[in-house]
Amino acid sequence: VAEHFKQIIRCPVCLKDLEEPMQLKCGYVCCLQCLNALQKEPDGEGLLCHFCSVVSQKNDIKPKYKLRAQVSIIKELEPKLKSILTTNPKIRKFQVDMTLDVDTANNYLIISEDLRSFRSRDFSQNRKEQAERFHIALCVLGAPCFTFGRHYWEVDVGTSEVWDVGICKESVNRQGKIVLSSEHGFLTVGCGKGKVFALHRVGIFPDVGMRSISFYNVSDGCHIYTFNKISVSEPWRPIFAHKRGTQEDQTFLSICSVINPASASAPIYSGESE
């Protein structure tokens, strides 16, 4: 988002913030001083923009007063915007000591012995039937569940090509094919096959009191997305989904270790391990 605003106020000629923006006949905008860098029409005084063949005569070139005002506002708000859209290190004090709930895991998911990592495989695991297990969707829930308060955890998705992480309502359907959408009780971010997503570690921060959940790119601290006005009518569960993009894809999704174990809340978990 911050980069989007920077692109709006950046001059395409000098690549700096616009100073006294001027608009050509075709709509091209640059700094007043950068008009001198534009190519002139052959045998004339008109100017050519860098992207089209429309000629702008002197009377065609107009100052963009509203854009000049917007540039000033964006430059003033930029520090605050960066602060809002980056991870606050203090949220780590809400980090949860989380594990995977094997009783909910799809049988094509392999769960590690420490209950913190998993991946999908082509053969089914021999686990007992459970009503709470995902039967077709390659998903597994985490523990604990949340009914109030602030909670934070990080997930290492490695180089996996297909994944989703986030939270879901306790009552979500776990039978048949499932769409991971907010309409069906799932609040997640993820990556689909064929998409390029330079993200290897995701920070997840549900704030039940504020009725929101935010996602962050842990590598650079950038904000990814926030769901607002989430329901508080029932408990929420951490959810993880994974599907191998290729036969060679052996990447695990892993819940990252607690950074400050003394401040982490203990998981509420009851289930079997492999």
Automatic annotation (TrEMBL):
It is an enzyme of class 2 (transferase). Its main location: cytoplasm. Gene3D superfamilies: 2.60.120.920, Zinc/RING finger domain, C3HC4 (zinc finger). GO terms for molecular function: ubiquitin protein ligase activity; zinc ion binding. It is found in: Cytoplasm. Transmembrane segments: none annotated. Coiled coil: none annotated. It holds the Pfam family SPRY. Residues 11-53 form the RING-type domain. SMART domains: PRY, RING, SPRY. Keywords: Cytoplasm, Metal-binding, Transferase, Zinc, Zinc-finger. Its EC number is 2.3.2.27. InterPro entries: B30.2/SPRY, B30.2/SPRY_sf, Butyrophylin_SPRY, ConA-like_dom_sf, PRY, RDM_domain_RFPL, SPRY/PRY_RFPL, SPRY_dom. GO terms for cellular component: cytoplasm. It catalyses: S-ubiquitinyl-[E2 ubiquitin-conjugating enzyme]-L-cysteine + [acceptor protein]-L-lysine = [E2 ubiquitin-conjugating enzyme]-L-cysteine + N(6)-ubiquitinyl-[acceptor protein]-L-lysine. Residues 78-274 form the B30.2/SPRY domain. This is RING-type E3 ubiquitin transferase.
